[in-house]
From TrEMBL:
Gene name linked to the record: Lrrc14b
Keywords: Leucine-rich repeat, Repeat
Record-linked SUPFAM superfamilies: RNI-like
Lineage: superkingdom: Eukaryota
Lineage: Eukaryota, Metazoa, Chordata, Craniata, Vertebrata
Keyword Repeat belongs to the record: yes
Family statement: Belongs to the PRAME family. LRRC14 subfamily.
GO CC field: cytoplasm
Descriptive protein name: Leucine-rich repeat-containing protein 14B
UniProt cross-references to InterPro entries, sorted A to Z: LRR_dom_sf (IPR032675), LRRC14/PRAME (IPR050694)
Amino acid sequence: RTTMKSLRFISAEAFVSNAEFARKSLSAVAHDLFPLLFKASYLLEQGEVIHDLVKNWPLFDFNMGKLLGATLDYQEDLSHRTCSVCLESCLTGLRDYVLNQSSPYMKKLRVVDLTGIKDVEVQFCKCKKTMGRWARTQLLSKLCSELMVYLQQAQCNPGTFEISINVLIDLFVTERNYELVVQALLKKCSCPLKICCVAFRSDNLTLQKFFYIIKLTDPSFLRKLEIVHNVHLEMEHLEILFNSIHFPLLMSLTLPARTFNVQRFTATDEQMLTNIGEKMGEMMQLTELSMSFSILTGRIQKLLSPLKTPLKMLDVSNCSLNHADMAFLANSFHANHLEALDLSGHDIPELYPSTFFKLLSHCSSVLRSLTLEDCNIQDTHINMLILSLSPCQKLQEFKFIGNPLSSQALKHLFTFLCELPMLKNVEFPVPRDCYPIGITYPIDDANLCRFDHQKYERIAEELNLILLQANREDVKASTPLFGSYDAAVQETNSELGAYLIKSFKETLEKFTTSFNKMS
């Protein structure tokens, strides 16, 4: 599919394709043409031209999402191209904007917004080398620190110290880039490039380091907080976090696995849970909440009823919800507003089929994404599932990996899915008849790949043919056995792996020591 380009955009491409000529001619270019030239340079991966455009940026703001998004001159959205050449040129250009003393333009730049960059699995840039969120965090922090060192050592124009540019970014901090980010945040007041953290993700960090850096980010501006892998945050730490720090603009909160475990609750823990619910109730903007792999049996109402703003996204996968929890969700004011819902890991057909049906009917007018992985949905439940999904006419994404469904049931379901007009992405399980007879669900990792691959490919082709015959080539159907693509995990998987090995080794050493003492 080719996207139409205006004559202006074609001319811009021609201009920037000769990098040497374009760089020499920038001083004669009208201010309002800079955004056009930037997008053309980004499309053609002209790193040197991008650098010089940013270095001489003549406008008040620089918003990556808007600059790379659909424009009248070129409709294609390039914000999902995290091209390393382009992004590095962009960020070094920003540093050199501060140091640039020969720019013919008066320095007007006040706001740089990098939050519109989207990390996706498939990259279309020619260099095929991406710069993910972690690497962008790393590079910006490094450039801020280098800038401060240079300004302290060099004879700079006094006007340089008056430059103040807020750089809005989604920070991603792990043990490996922690020190660098901390140094950049500590120097924020005196640095011309001021890191403004809009979203913060933390993996592989000790609690002490997490608490220290989260305070440095200025939480009053934080809109999204993700505490994900290997940050051992438990309920008492969450209460301390909410008691000591206010998050007035927080819209999205992701908590790590096992933050809550009601199986070992005391009266003190119950009060703690109530306090946490009340603190979340004070977050007037909170509309997205993810609490997967916590044990929350019978406590959903206590946690969510204080919320004054309806949730648009809720992930309670593998949270051991009971009928009372599901009944609360189905009858709560959140139900009518849920655009994304994840109930994976619950035996829906067995435990609460009618309540689930009610919940889905309430959110059907707005629901865009539904995840029901490992929910024990079998062939006998397919008609119930179709009936539940029928009103969900805005559904764009449906994931149901790990359910014991036959190829016949999947074909029946796919025939129905063709009727959902907005559907774009389907993640379906390996059919049960591809596995050896007697396989038990949920399937453990050891047996996950032990299926008839040729048979699977044949059935997958048949399912895609159903989509094709219904003119639904726009729907992508796949079976990601080990879960959906996660850009953050993909980027830091080596650090994550090393951390897990280290943790396992330490646990093993503790066990050996204890065993030796007993002996």
